[in-house]
Amino acid sequence: FKLPSDSFKHLGWCDIEEHDVRGNQLHCPRVREGPSEEELFFRKEEQTLKKRKQVTDAEKWEKRLQENWENCAELNLSFQDLGDLYQLENFKRILRRLIRVEKLWLVDNSLTDLSAIRLPRCRELNVNKNHFTSFKHLPKLPQIQHLSLAENNIMTLSGISDFRHTPLESLVLKRNPCEFQERYRQLVFSSLPNLKVLDGIPKLPEDCSPPDIRFLYKMCTLL
Question: Which among 15, 20, 71, 160 is placed 20 to 30 Å from 168, CA to CA?
């Protein structure tokens, strides 16, 4: 039963039954739930997979409890190779259940928009090497302290002020287009008063704008 992603085309789906491992005990779980019967029907691939047994509501609930994502405090979901829509949907389903996670790694997953996700206790988030284009597409992170966004495609600093009322202390924006914006460090620190470190460099005196800098930019000079 071939998987859709090229790097897994010679592997097959495998449902491991009768085990006691829970989601929060895995160091780097993989999101690989297979497509639904309806999905297979519309893709005309239902004949390629064995007919699945009917799953009762009790079995579905038992599987949900076994995943136990709600009790994860630290989780690494990097390098998932989300090659199909149902994998991405299942990935987001897991993220919505991470109500207690404090440290989360989502590196290199080709993610573009997680704005519908809320991580109420997350203090450290690493989403390096994804495809985010705006701060508006990040999850809701009311308790975030350390945020790493290196190697995405964030063009401007628009939306960064949404983190103004969070305890954000450290931010990494290396290798994003916004890094080349004029007065980049000054603009970031002026938008985030609690920020202490940007791109691995502590806040410097020159990163603080002079009190009258806004007036200077609004004034025009007549020659």
Answer: 71
